[in-house]
Amino acid sequence: MDLHHVPTTREKGWYLALMAPNTKGPHYAWLDPSRLYCHPQGLQDCVADLLQPFQGDPIDLVAGIDAMGFILGAAVAATLRKGFLAIRKAGHLCVETLAEPYTDYSGREKVMEMRTDTVSPGVRVLLVDQWVETGGTMRAAIRLLERQGG
């Protein structure tokens, strides 16, 4: 699909056809959404669909998980007119951080970090990632936010 073409009739999820097929082999069960992110209407419709379940929910801040969650998270934050918090892999933040260990999809032990000066008790955070494979990074991000009172 052309990156500038917008279908006349846009069915829900039409933009999924923009994602590149898996070229990494049979042991990888994901598609590359970076092409979708290049399509202005596709990205807008994707974000609108992702936000549909949260209509009316009080959201104070949007957080995205390193690294592809930054793209969707920032787009969601901009759409909602909210701030964006990057939850990073260890060692990438040059400020005081909280750290949380986790096991990634490949079984490796890793650490996620977030700044300590952004989330205060009661802040409602919408946590965004590109996909959740085993839940390890998502659980670590949730624990970090909850430790701050979010």
From TrEMBL:
Its main location: cytoplasm. The keyword Glycosyltransferase applies. This is adenine phosphoribosyltransferase. The chain crosses the membrane at residues 61-80. The lineage of its organism: Eukaryota, Metazoa, Chordata, Craniata, Vertebrata. Its EC number is 2.4.2.7. One of its GO terms (molecular function) is adenine phosphoribosyltransferase activity. Homodimer. One of its GO terms (cellular component) is cytoplasm. It comes from the Eukaryota. It comes from Odontophorus gujanensis. Keywords: Cytoplasm, Glycosyltransferase, Membrane, Purine salvage, Transferase, Transmembrane, Transmembrane helix. InterPro entries: Adenine_PRTase, PRTase-like, PRTase_dom. Residues 57-149 form the Phosphoribosyltransferase domain. One of its GO terms (biological process) is purine ribonucleoside salvage. Pathway: Purine metabolism; AMP biosynthesis via salvage pathway; AMP from adenine: step 1/1. It is found in: Cytoplasm. Belongs to the purine/pyrimidine phosphoribosyltransferase family. It catalyses: AMP + diphosphate = 5-phospho-alpha-D-ribose 1-diphosphate + adenine.
